[in-house]
Design a protein that fits this description.
It is a single chain. With about 425 residues, the chain is an alpha/beta fold. The protein has 2 domains: about 130 residues, Aspartate Aminotransferase, domain 1; about 260 residues, Type I PLP-dependent aspartate aminotransferase-like (Major domain) (Aspartate Aminotransferase, domain 2), CATH 3.40.640.10. Helix 1 runs antiparallel to helix 14, helix 2 runs antiparallel to helix 11 and helix 8 packs parallel to helix 9. Strand 12 and strand 13 form a beta hairpin. The radius of gyration is 22 Å and the shape is globular. Helices cover about 35% and strands about 10% of the residues. It has 14 helices and 13 strands.
Length: about 425
C-alpha cells in the first residue's frame, strides 16, 4: 500500500476498515477534558469490552438467587464453566480442545509446567531463556534451577542478540543448540518478547530443539490474541499465557495453559489437585489421584467464576472476528505506524522491533528520558515506558484506529523537537 501522512488518509483507511465497528464495543478511557485517550497499552492491560458487565452480572445474579446450587443450576452452570472457554482458547492457540485449559495465573502455570517438563539430571540440566525476558519468567526458571540443586550461573543460558543488534537471530539459537544441546533440558522463551516485540520462529525453534531431545515451552503472554499460533502442529510441549493483555479479561484474570496431547497419558510428575482428577468420580472423594487425560489434568482447584465470565465476554468477540482478520488489520496498522515514524525529521527515533512482530512497536528515542514520555502522557497518550529510553506502543486491531496512530505521530513529532 502507498501511504501518505495526511489526516485524510488515516480517516479514509478507517472508513474502509471492516472491523471499524468493534471499537464501539469497548470502554475507551477519557482524558480530563472528556476526550478519549489514545490508548496503546493493550500489551499491558486490554480495554474492557462493554459486554463484560453483562456476563459478570449474570453470575452475580445467579449466586444471589441460587447460592451453592449455582454450580449446577445457574444459567451457565459453574461446575463446568471453564469448559465454556475451551473452544475459543483452542482457536487462539492453534490447538486441539483437549490441549488447552483456563486455570490459575501465568507464573503459577509456568511453575506447574516446569514441575512436569523440567526434569534435570547431572548431564542435562540447563534452561535457555531470552536475556531480556520478562523478569517474572527469569525469576521462575532461576528458582526451578535452584530447587533442583543446580547453580543458576552455570545452568541458565540467556540468549542475547549480536553486538549492535536488538533481535535474537534464529540461526544463533540453532548454533547454541548444536554446541550445548546435550546439556539443555528446556528452552523456555516468550513467543513475543515483551521488550522488543520480536516474534520468535516458534515452529523452527521447536523442531531444532526436539532434534536434540530438548523440551520446548513458550510464555505467550504477549502472543495470545496478538499473533497467529499453531501450537499443536508445531509440536510445542507446553505453553502458558495470561488473558488480561490482548484477550481483554481484566487485571489479574485467570490464565491459560497448553499441554500437547502427546503428554496427556504420560507418567510425567505433576503437582496434583482435585480439579485435575477424573470428573466421573471426583465427588466420590477417592484417596488415590486419577488425572484427567487432557490438559485439564494439570488443574488444581475450581476456578474463580467471575474472572472466567469476564474472559468469556471478551472471547466471544474473538470468536466473531477470528484471528485471521485481526492479524490482517494488525499488520496494516503497524506498517502504517512504521511509515509515519519514518517521516518525522529527526535522527532520534529508532524502531527496535524487527519485521517479525505482532502489533507492538518498541520505539527508542535517543538522548531521551522519561520527560518525553511524560510529555506525550499529558497530551492524552496511554503507552508504556521501559527504562532507559523505550516507549512501547501497541495498536490493538479490535479498538485502535488509523486516526489514533496519526494523532500519536503528531504528538511524538512535537515531543522530539521540544523535549
Amino acid at each position: 500500500m502507498k501511504y501518505n501522512k495526511t489526516k485524510e488518509f488515516a480517516l479514509e483507511q478507517d472508513e474502509k476498515d471492516p472491523l471499524k465497528g468493534y471499537r464501539e464495543q469497548f470502554h475507551i478511557p477519557l482524558q480530563d477534558n472528556g476526550e478519549e485517550c489514545l490508548y496503546f497499552c493493550g500489551n499491558s492491560l486490554g480495554l474492557q469490552p462493554k459486554k463484560t458487565g453483562e456476563y459478570v452480572n449474570q453470575e452475580l445474579e445467579d449466586w444471589a438467587k441460587l447460592g451453592v446450587e449455582g454450580h449446577f443450576h445457574a444459567q451457565n452452570p459453574w461446575m463446568p464453566y471453564h469448559e465454556f472457554l475451551t473452544d475459543s482458547f483452542s482457536r487462539i492457540a492453534g490447538a486441539k480442545k483437549e490441549e488447552v485449559v483456563a486455570m490459575n495465573t501465568l507464573t503459577a502455570n509456568l511453575h506447574l509446567m516446569m514441575v512436569s517438563f523440567y526434569r534435570p539430571n547431572k548431564s542435562r540440566y540447563k534452561i535457555v531463556i531470552e536475556a531480556d525476558a520478562f523478569p517474572s519468567d527469569i525469576y521462575a526458571v532461576s528458582s526451578q534451577i535452584q530447587f533442583h540443586g543446580f547453580d543458576i550461573a552455570s545452568s541458565l543460558i540467556k540468549l542475547k542478540p549480536r553486538a549492535g543488534e536488538v533481535a535474537v537471530r534464529t540461526e544463533d539459537i540453532e548454533t547454541l543448540m548444536e554446541q550445548e544441546g546435550d546439556a539443555i533440558a528446556l528452552i523456555m522463551l516468550g513467543g513475543v518478547n515483551y521488550y522488543t516485540g520480536q516474534v520468535f520462529d516458534m515452529a523452527a525453534i521447536t523442531d531444532m530443539a526436539h532434534k536434540k531431545d530438548i523440551v520446548v515451552g513458550f510464555d505467550l503472554a504477549h502472543a495470545a490474541g496478538n499473533i497467529l499460533l499453531n501450537l499443536h502442529e508445531w509440536g510445542v510441549d507446553f505453553a502458558v499465557w495470561c488473558t488480561y493483555k490482548y484477550l481483554n479479561s481484566g487485571p489479574g484474570s485467570v490464565a491459560g495453559c497448553f499441554v500437547h496431547e502427546k503428554h496427556h497419558k504420560s507418567n510425567l510428575p505433576r503437582f496434583a489437585g482435585w480439579w485435575g482428577h477424573n470428573k466421573e468420580n471426583r465427588f466420590k472423594m477417592p484417596t488415590d489421584y486419577e488425572p484427567i487425560h487432557t490438559a485439564e489434568g494439570w488443574q488444581l482447584s475450581n476456578p474463580p467464576i467471575l474472572s472466567l465470565a469476564a474472559i468469556r465476554a471478551s472471547l466471544s468477540i474473538f470468536d466473531e472476528v477470528g484471528m485471521e482478520q485481526l492479524t490482517a488489520k494488525s499488520k496494516q496498522l503497524s506498517a502504517y505506524f512504521s511509515y509515519l515514524l519514518g517521516t518525522i525529521e529527526t535522527d532520534r527515533i529508532e524502531i527496535i522491533t524487527p519485521d517479525q512482530r505482532g502489533c507492538q512497536l518498541s520505539i527508542r528515542v535517543k538522548d531521551s528520558n522519561k520527560e518525553l514520555y511524560d510529555f506525550i502522557t499529558k497530551r492524552g497518550v496511554v503507552a508504556d515506558w521501559r527504562e532507559p529510553d523505550v516507549i512501547r506502543i501497541a495498536p490493538v486491531p479490535l479498538y485502535n484506529s488509523f486516526i489514533d496512530l496519526h494523532q500519536f505521530y503528531k504528538i511524538l513529532e512535537e515531543a522530539v523537537s521540544s523535549v
